[in-house]
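Box 4.2: Ligand-aware structure prediction
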Amino acid sequence: MLLKGLLTVLPLLGRLRGAAGDLLSDIENALANATDCASCHALLLPLQTLAHLGNAAFVDTIVALCDASGLEDPDVCQGAIGLEGPILAHDLRQISALGQTATKFCDAVFGLCDPPPVNAFAVPFPRAAPAHPRTFKSTGRPPFQVVHISDVHIDRFYTVGSEANCTKPICCRNFADQSGAPSEPAGPNGNAHCDSPVVLADSLLEATEQFAPDAAFTLFTGDVVEGAVWLVNETEVTNDLAAFNAEMAAKLKGPIFPAIGNHDSVPVNSFPRNTTVTTIGSQFVFDTQSAGWAQFIGAAAAAEVDHNSGSYSVVVSGMNLRIISVNTQYWYKQNFWVYDSDTQQPDPNGLLAFMVQELQAAEDAGQRAFIIGHMPMGKEDALNDQSNYYNQITQRYKNTIAAQFFGHSHKDQFEIAYSDFNDQTAETATSIAIIAPALTPTSGNPAFKIYDIDPDTFEIMDARVYITNITAPDFQTSAPQWELFYSARETYGPLVTPPLPASAPLDAAFWHNLTEVFAANDTAFQMFNTFLSRGGDVQPCDDDCKTVTICDMRALRAENNCDNPTPGLMFKRDGNGAEPPVSESDACEGHGTAHILKALVSRSQNDHAQNFARVRRSDRVPRSVLQD
Ligand SMILES: *[C@@H]1O[C@H](CO)[C@@H](O)[C@H](O)[C@H]1NC(C)=O
Ligand SMILES: *[C@@H]1O[C@H](CO)[C@@H](O)[C@H](O)[C@H]1NC(C)=O
Ligand SMILES: *[C@@H]1O[C@H](CO)[C@@H](O)[C@H](O)[C@H]1NC(C)=O
Ligand SMILES: *[C@@H]1O[C@H](CO)[C@@H](O)[C@H](O)[C@H]1NC(C)=O
Ligand SMILES: *[C@@H]1O[C@H](CO)[C@@H](O)[C@H](O)[C@H]1NC(C)=O
Ligand SMILES: *[C@@H]1O[C@H](CO)[C@@H](O)[C@H](O)[C@H]1NC(C)=O
Ligand SMILES: *[C@@H]1O[C@H](CO)[C@@H](O)[C@H](O)[C@H]1NC(C)=O
């Protein structure tokens, strides 16, 4: 029933009448039938036919489906699909509907296939691991401080007094279709339904100087741009990136080492591989950040940003430490450009090779290394292939890599890599990735981290989380107040057996032992669960959730995570109208086209017997899902 009548609202398709009539009912049936991986492959056949009619026909049809579903406001449907739809249409024109790339497409775009088994690929290394690797010993000198901020998502169109309780993915803007007095006027300092106002971001930068005045440097793991993914354009993104670079330069004393996030391009997540010929490029991002970051990372590294798809490597002045910043977006499931060829490309744009080159240089020079990037490599939204290859690099250079730092999930988390993922113990735990929570208040209280780092080993000695409490009574009436939320060493150190000695680092073995504590001690685990969202918007986590959460802590290699979103059911509610669980990967992607298409397949089934087009406003995607 879904598409009956759509022909009348689709002037463009008027000229395709006849063949298009059949095509539209084919798509309608295939959408309704898409319940598993095989039927998703079948759905791609009519979608390919549509894609061959051109980007405009493809976009208009998907927009009409989105409009008819009532899942998002019309401007969101039009904007998000208008921007991202051409990439999907491009993919569908290039690939076989039945091949492995199509399976990956069905996983990423519709949530209907499991990722295919990892394609074996041995990352080439210039030299085998040394038989007697250099060891790094602490001389007991006092640690230095490093600040870690992430996912600032600054909305430069944030408007005080605008509607904070809107029906769009983010609120607190004067949207064109807004009418009447706001039911909840946006306050000056931010709102859980909205991305960060500039004052909140400024206050974050000032707070880092307040709590770590002598910080050696700041890590920023990406996502400058706000989540209005249906409105962004190149002018806005360029301005947003440049403005935050200027603000960091003005407010932070120490060096800054940034990384590129998936929101820092147009459309969102769009980073075409260098094998793709397209007019939708992301070189403007690399040009902008190369120019803006030169003052932080130096001219040579800035040139690498420009020529290395946003990645660079730099030795910290006066330290035996190399920082390697990688643009993780070529390994990201929601970067739809990676589905435009049936030929598997193990190392898009040569960024894994770049990591190897830089880690080898660090090993040769007797340096330790930090890897920084936006997306942690263990989540369901990391491509299993590239995560596996990345892990090979992590294992080869485990003696060189002191720690890895990411953002993207908006949560306060960690992920552990093992030399043997089938035998996960403190002894096999080889690398630790620390994930900084977000500034944006959309999934908990705004936060940042300060690490204590040993100056000889560059191991993490402590990780402290600082927050501002957006539900505190005076949050809107004075400048945001920041406070220490917890210290990982003080809070977790005494819980492991034996209690963490004063001189021992928070290394991978420690974090592994902590996961054992979480498994055995639910009080400790629930404390972690509260910390995840910094005490705000805490989501209950029962035994099943806990099992998945602990599994994921032990899965810096994505094929080992236990994320298993039920295909196509993300938006289904139970018979009592209860809200579906919020997918974490959804929080990272924002409300782009995959979000809509995943909902469409489930809606299509849900409402098969009803008139899809008459989904009432009250039946919209629940607020909590939209907000995350
Ligand atoms: C959808 O499924 C029904 C029943 O299983 C089948 O009759 C129909 O041919 C299928 N349609 C498509 C487009 O696959
Ligand atoms: C938000 O808006 C909905 C209707 O759109 C209304 O029912 C609800 O009461 C509003 N909430 C607040 C806090 O104003
Ligand atoms: C780009 O976005 C900005 C901010 O929304 C808007 O003011 C501007 O008109 C847009 N430019 C184009 C070319 O659409
Ligand atoms: C893409 O990047 C890789 C790695 O830098 C390089 O070897 C290859 O030549 C590039 N391909 C194109 C088409 O630019
Ligand atoms: C934030 O403030 C509210 C209101 O005072 C309080 O209930 C809540 O516990 C605070 N949250 C944190 C994490 O301190
Ligand atoms: C981890 O736990 C084991 C015992 O289960 C212990 O021998 C080891 O010292 C612990 N390691 C750390 C770093 O806490
Ligand atoms: C469990 O963890 C809590 C901290 O969350 C701690 O106070 C308690 O002593 C732990 N229980 C055991 C049996 O170790």
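In the box above, the bound molecule is 2-acetamido-2-deoxy-beta-D-glucopyranose. Residues 74-94 form the longest helix (21 residues).
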